[in-house]
Specification:
single chain, 563 residues, alpha/beta, Urease, subunit C, domain 1, eight-stranded mixed β-sheet, eight-stranded parallel β-sheet, 18 strands, 35% helix, globular
Length: 563
């Protein structure tokens, strides 16, 4: 019944999309369904996670076995003593590792075209231990986001906590217009600004007003404006976070003040846009040079946060690997996979004629980019983790774990990686509010956002992938899968992460079984329209001719346990 209903829901979405034409980012996304009675247990008056090994997110080494007592949705106590006799629920966690919930600092949901149901993204995040997402924006419809944020806060849906950053209008003409927009933002439930490379006077007005109102800020300093607003320009004006790589390399150019583009370059040709940016790797002041060190030292003094999102561009280094990632078949929606494939219409699907030369350029670019990030970390700069999933063969949840692997490749110790993914993200969310963190570390008094895993992620970050890591079983001589998050706890509610992942697999399978849009439209028409009874011919039995054909599967109204 569940699978049949899933197919019907997807058919309906396809038909609506076909009627509306190309969907907007916000208009067609289906909100998450109400949380079912069998989805998650708690919060409890007293919950104990018994005999676990804690990696607390601060950078401290693992310790255990310990018992973690949770009251309602907050951590009450961490100890090695006896557990209270009157606890409501105990999770036996011998040999399991307890970590703070991950914070994805660069999150977008899908769209009708690629991932039409928010539930798909939410469950992939939660299944990978991501208990907070900073939407930049999560969805361009602010009212829609506010409703989902509120439902998540009340645990009415299975979803991470939602932090709501929104974009100011792109057509701001004056500094006064910019100030007015920011001034109205808190009243609309906006917690921070996602900025582009605005003109200096407008950027300054946006950032000054945001700081005054205790709003956060993050910027994607695109090539169209980076000539007048690179990462250092923006940081000096008060920008909180630089996301991606845009603006860093341009601020370090050695022999030019703008990137020396090919003369036939066209930004709107995305292979030009994403192919040529990698050619910056050898046009900047080299790593370790006085200019390189001065650049990072000034960011450190200004308190700039680097949120690199290396995962979202990693396909450029090896397109074949990204297209054939082993999770795609079971966990990437066919519609999302189709969106990823080469297309001049879909953003980030720029593989029109991707060459070995392009991949070599990206590998060289990553070598320098990773050194920039690691050098900043080594001098005390804050680095966070964001995935920007939903583009460029980057599937939700799985892409986030790949970001952790890429930080280790850049030179981060696994404990530093976990720190970036937990405490650093939390601090970056709460610092603009002038508040102490509420999550991101396993310590008494903080919110019970955490997850349990049966393998040691410090030994191998790959065990954090939902489908686990490949390991040879020496007893059987056969390879098998180990790891994957076992329990995700958000706000004191305990979720079976394996079941969340199974729900996603069912969504993918249902979409595979759904007919193409044209066939779906015809099937829906036949199923929903009541055929008019044929008039009996003279001399024929009227009762016999009043019979009408029924559709093979009649759509039924979903009960409370169905979507």
């Amino acid at each position: 019944m569940f699978a049949t209903h899933r197919v019907f829901v997807f058919i309906t979405i396809l038909i609506v999309g076909a009627c509306l034409g190309v969907p907007s980012f916000a208009q067609d996304l289906v909100p998450a369904p109400d949380r079912r009675a069998d989805e998650g247990v708690g919060p409890f008056d007293q919950l104990v996670i018994k005999d676990c090994i804690v990696i607390d997110g601060t950078g401290a080494p693992p310790r255990g076995p310990v018992n973690v007592l949770i009251k309602q949705n907050r951590i009450e106590k961490i100890s090695s003593g006896k557990i209270p006799e009157d606890v409501d629920h105990v999770i036996e966690a011998v040999g399991m590792y307890l970590l703070p919930g991950f914070v994805d600092m660069h999150a977008h949901l899908g769209s009708l075209q690629k991932a039409p149901e928010a539930e798909y993204c939410y469950k992939l995040w939660m299944a990978h231990g991501v208990t907070t997402v900073r939407g930049v924006p999560l969805n361009g419809n602010n009212e829609w986001v506010i409703k989902e944020k509120d439902r998540s806060a009340k645990n009415e849906i299975v979803a991470p906590r939602i932090v709501n950053y929104q974009r100011p209008p792109g057509n701001l003409k004056t500094a006064e217009e910019a100030r007015q927009w920011v001034e109205a933002a808190p009243g609309q439930g906006i917690e921070g600004l996602k900025l582009g490379a605005y003109r200096p006077e407008i950027m300054q007005a946006l950032l000054r007003e945001a700081e005054r109102l205790r709003l956060g800020s993050v910027a994607h300093l695109a090539q169209t404006g980076v000539a007048h607003m690179d990462a250092m320009d923006a940081a000096r004006m008060g920008l909180g976070t630089v996301t991606h790589y845009y603006g860093h390399f341009e601020a370090l150019l050695k022999d030019h003040v703008v990137q020396p583009w090919p003369t036939d370059y066209n930004y709107n040709n995305e292979q030009d846009r994403f192919g040529q940016v990698a050619r910056l790797w050898d046009k900047i002041h080299p790593p370790g040079s006085p200019e390189w060190k001065a650049y990072l030292e000034e960011h450190l003094e200004l308190g700039t946060v680097f949120d690199p999102t290396m995962t979202i561009y990693s396909a450029g280094r090896d397109l074949m690997r990204a297209r054939r990632a082993e999770w795609h078949d079971q966990y990437t929606l066919p519609s999302l996979m189709q969106f990823f494939e080469p297309s001049r219409k879909n953003h980030g699907s720029y593989w029109f004629d991707w060459t070995t030369e392009d991949e070599v350029a990206w590998r060289n670019f990553y070598h320098v980019w990773m050194q920039l990030i690691n050098d900043y970390k080594k001098m005390g700069g804050r680095v966070t983790t964001g995935a920007d999933s939903g583009f460029i063969y980057d599937t939700y949840g799985f892409g986030y774990i790949e970001e952790l692997e890429l930080l280790q490749e850049a030179g981060f110790h696994p404990l530093e990686v976990i720190q970036c993914a937990t405490m650093n993200g939390a601090k970056t969310i709460f610092d603009p509010k002038r508040k102490s963190i509420e999550f991101g570390v396993i310590q008494p008094g903080l919110l019970a956002d955490m997850f349990l895993i049966e393998e040691n992620p410090l030994q191998n970050l790959k065990v954090l992938y939902g489908h686990g890591a490949l390991r040879l079983n020496d007893e059987t001589g056969e390879p098998g899968r180990v790891g994957g998050v076992r329990w995700t706890i958000k706000d004191g509610v305990v979720y079976d992460a394996k079941q969340l992942l199974a729900d996603v697999a069912a969504m993918v399978e249902a979409q595979k079984k759904a007919p193409p849009p044209a066939e779906a439209s015809e099937a829906q028409k036949e199923a929903s329209e009541e055929p008019e009874p044929a008039k009996p011919e003279a001399g024929e039995n009227k009762q016999e001719n009043d019979k009408t054909e029924e559709p093979d599967v009649e759509p039924s109204k979903p009960d409370k346990d169905q979507r």
